[in-house]
Amino acid sequence: MKHILLAVATFLLMFTGLKAGAQARIDSSSLGKTFEVILKDNSTYTGKMIRLAGGDIIIHTKALGDITIPKLQIQTINEVPSNQEEIDSAHLEDNAFATRYFMSTNGLPAEAGQTYIRWNWFGPDVQYAVSDQLTIGLMATWIGAPLLGDIKVSIPLAKDLNLGVGVVAGTGLWVFPEFKLALPFGALTYGDRRNNITFSGGYGYVNTGTNSGGRMIYSAAGMLHLSKKVSIVFDSFILPGNKSDNDYAGLFLPGLRIQSSNRSAFQFGYMAVSTINGTSQVPIPMAQWFRKLK
Questions:
Q1: Average pLDDT for residues 160-171, to the nearest whole number?
Q2: Which CATH number is 92-292 given?
Q3: Could you tell me if 100 and 139 are in contact, meaning their C-beta atoms sit under 8 angstroms apart?
């Protein structure tokens, strides 16, 4: 357990470390001019500088509109002809997959109309954004059961701070018709579509027909952008032990996501299971393919 806590702490330090860096030299004479801005994570944007706000600059881009960029995240900034085509790696800003980790979700909003499928080794998962704040989805195994449905509402709280509330519910269908599951949850996310960390919790209820019960489930998850195409992804589920039987259990999933475009990504990682008896690695890797449908 100590090793797992150390890994989570290391992720947090790496995440917050992205805020550090040297400030670019920018002043009021830059307003109204077009610039190419390269961030320390190698993301590139081209747009007209419209405002300076303390430690931030605001540029207007054709694809994304107004973007606020902290000066501390800027690696280089160069003036370019105002008619130059916008050059950026903005697929990370317009990234439908950024709302999901390996298994859990976060509080980030979607873009209305976006639809994508995530292929897991055990079955497909389809997500559809009804609006910027409301998403619905279905997940199943390759034999069609169990079948799980989910719904989530995203609520912006502040800059880089979003809350997601929703529920996952499902049934065993023809394989196990007596099986029922429900998991209402909340997820608080700090960060953007490149770098974020999420703390979530919910109450999982299961009814097998002969037995039923529930317990709290917690999660810490996050994403750390390493380069234009590669990100670290971390996910976890933690079931605190009851005082009577001390049956603590935890599932931890670190891995990498490789995203070559707006429309597709691949991620893989390895699971570790922790109980009161120790921690062991699951020999089967977790591999997932994302494909944007709309």
A1: 95
A2: 2.40.160.40
A3: no
